Amino acid sequence: MEPDLTNRLAALEEKIDKIYISVEKTRKYFLWTAIITIAMIVLPIIGLAFAVPAFLTNYVGGIQSLGNIQ
């Protein structure tokens, strides 16, 4: 091979390696963004699954006690 072609191939290989590293960092960034987003949506929903029934029990119990005052 010609020296010029060899140098160009080496430069291209170096650029491809840098692009690969950048793509992997971006992939990890998107992965953690997705995990955090899902956690911020799913965890409150799970908390509400326990909080709403407890609130309704207290609310209904309070209304029933008001009806028994008479």
Any overview of this molecule?
By secondary structure, the chain is mainly α. Helix content is 93%, strand content 0%. The protein has 1 helix and no strands. It has one helix at residues 3-67. It starts with a helix and ends with a helix. The relative contact order is 0.05.
Gyration radius (Cα, Å) is: 30 Å
Number of helical runs?
1
Distance between the termini: 102 Å
- Give the integer mean of the pLDDT values: 91
Q: Helix/strand/pairing class, anyone? A: mainly alpha
* Beta-strand proportion: under 5%
Topology:
Layout: H1 3-67
The gist of it:
Helix content is about 95%, strand content about 0%. The protein contains one helix and no strands. The model has no long low-confidence stretch (mean pLDDT about 90).
List keywords for this structure.
single chain; rod-shaped; mainly alpha; 70 residues
